[in-house]
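Hi W.,

Here's what went into the run:
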Amino acid sequence: MWIVTKIADLVQLKPQDFYKTSLEAIEDKINEKYANKVIPNIGLCVCVWDITDASEGLIGQYDEPARVAFVTNRRHSVEAEKVWLWKSDEETQLYYDTHEIVRFMVLEERWYTQPPTKPKESTDSDAPTKTTYQAPYSIIGTMAAPGLGITLWWE
Amino acid sequence: MKILEAQSAVLTNYEVYQHLTDIRKRNNSSQPKRRMPEDAFRLSKEVLEYLETKPYPLHDQKEKQHYSQATLELLCEKLAEKFPDITKAEGLAIFDVRPTNIPVLAIIVESLEDRYTEEEQQQLVDLVIEVLGQDDPEPEEEEGEEGAEDGDAVQSVETANGA
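Here's what came out:
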């Protein structure tokens, strides 16, 4: 599923972007900042859908002109189908081969915000402190229902 | 950064597909060629590839043009007319997934069997095929020919309606 989310943000345009029109420059900056990133409880950002409003530019404190882009719309996806790798055999002998496309039902979305890493403590212990990384956004789904599973079964 | 509206609209796969292909066309035709920032470029490429994968109904959009703004409107209109109980979200999923058989329809429409008789279920599938088309049957042995005739039959029904 794809949704449009309205966001207000301030972006800084540097002199090297001046050859672009301001709308293009703002769009590129926003794409750079958001695309392929997860916003908690919203989803994965794909790209700018539309720029609904942009204010006049402001001059920043380092004499670099900055422009304020207000309200950008982006999309997120909770996909209904995805390549899933799984091997199992059931009584009916349906195999999940690798690289088959399956259809699954989304049961749950899980969000995880990575806390900042601790600063290195004393040098006594050389053992590197392990930080566990977790996907910021995971989807729990099921294929245990009629119509779900490898799409070819239902053709 | 401030989120003004978490969900101001829902988009269909087709709209996303169209938006991304439009951006690509626009960027390629501008002088000098424009390029999206790295992450956005890669992600939009992946999304396009994903949408163009079989069995997604958009996989042959380039050749067949089954999908357009007009078919979306037509589908909404016909659903409202014949199946007014179908919710907006279900309509969206029907448009995106294009269920051409009942088991697939059943995962989209909640408690399908309680809400519609078998006949109505089949009518709904037929409506989807009429408006959104369907994949050409796999060309395997003799069955392929029969399938092709079915496809033609659907088209001629459309023209008959138009006439």
